[in-house]
Amino acid sequence: MPAETTVPPIQVVGLHKYFGDLEVLKGIDFQVNLREVVCVIGPSGSGKSTLLRCINRLEEPTAGKIYIEGDDITDIDADVDKLRTKIGMVFQRFNLFPHLTVMKNLTIAQERVLKRSSDEAQDVAMRMLERVGLLEKAEEFPIRLSGGQQQRVAIARSLCMNPDMMLFDEPTSALDPELVGEVLDVMRKLAEEGMTMMVVTHEMGFARQVGDRVTFIDGGVVVEENAPEELLLNPQQERTRRFLEAVQHY
Predict the structure, then answer these.
(1) Pairing of β 213-218 and β 196-200
(2) Between helices 147-159 and 102-112, what is the axis angle to 10°?
(3) Crossing angle for the helix pair 177-192 and 147-159, to the nearest 10 degrees
(4) What are the beta bridge partners of residue 167?
(5) pLDDT tens, 204-241?
(6) 111 φ, ψ to 5°?
């Protein structure tokens, strides 16, 4: 865990993002505080995933500022690769290398980016696999794993880089319903351990139980944010109420 600080791990100021003539993010102001779990909800196409991808510069912001532990990752002189090492990212589709074993998937970035020795990288990988309950799968290839197991490997891979914060982009939406729980359990444990987390999700139960704050985004703007019980059970905005009535998952 990073040292205590008053600087939020993630701070977004006036963020705009265009794809051609389409404005997807329309002046977003947003932050995640230390050891906080913020769940971001909203309809498809609302800008949730684009916001997440802008935070670690997988998408290039059109305007605005994004600060990672006080450093502006959008600055032209920013060391983006160095700042990215602070941010773990877990994608909807796992993004594992299919031709590499689980162990190789977990060690390749450690060796190339963090310059760890092979032995050290493998030691870290084994500890992280144990953490997500998949120690026995170290020499398997991804194709031999279930979707839930692949996503847990993806989480372990991110943890191997010793990030200060984790971004999750709809990590359970590609999974069969019976596999969702095993991934959410790993995320729940991370939250209990104090990991700073930003989670784009459709899992309203998880948001309610684990989130410290829920942010509802629609049309590229933050419509409403509040504590989970308040936003999910007593939304103040009509647009939020309509969305929650439609999903009916919580």
Answers:
(1) unpaired
(2) 20
(3) 20
(4) 89, 198
(5) 999 999 999 999 999 999 999 999 999 999 999 999 99
(6) -75, -40
- How far apart are the two ends of the chain, measured CA to CA in Å? 31
Strand partners, 15: 28
Spatial distance between the Cα atoms of 224 and 231, rounded to a whole number of angstroms: 8
Q: How far is CA 165 from the centre of its chain?
A: 8
- 19 vs 96: CA distance, rounded Å: 27
Which candidate, 39, 33, 46, 51, places its Cα nearest to that of 232? 39
Helices assigned H by DSSP within 18-79: 48-55
Residues in the chain: 250
Q: What is the DSSP letter of 179?
A: H
Please give the structure tokens belonging to residue 112: 């190339």
User: Cβ of 43: how many Cβ atoms within 10 Å?
Assistant: 17
- Write out the two tokens for 73: 């990752």
- pLDDT, tens digit, 9 for 90 and up, residues 128-170: 999 999 999 999 999 999 999 999 999 999 999 999 999 999 9
**Residue 12: which H helix or E strand, with range?**
strand 10-19
Q: Shortest CA distance to 62 belongs to which of 101, 28, 33? A: 28
Distance CA 230, CA 234 (A): 5
Structure tokens at 147: 């979707």
3-state SS, residue 15: strand
Q: Write down the pTM of the prediction.
A: 0.92
Name the one residue in this structure whose structure tokens are 């909807």.
92
CB-facing half-sphere around the CA of 4: CA atoms within 13 A: 0
DSSP bridge partners of 217: 222
Q: Can you tell me the distance from the alpha carbon of 198 to that of 212, in angstroms, rounded to the nearest whole number?
A: 10
> For residues 232 and 245, what is the distance between their CA atoms, to the nearest angstrom?
10
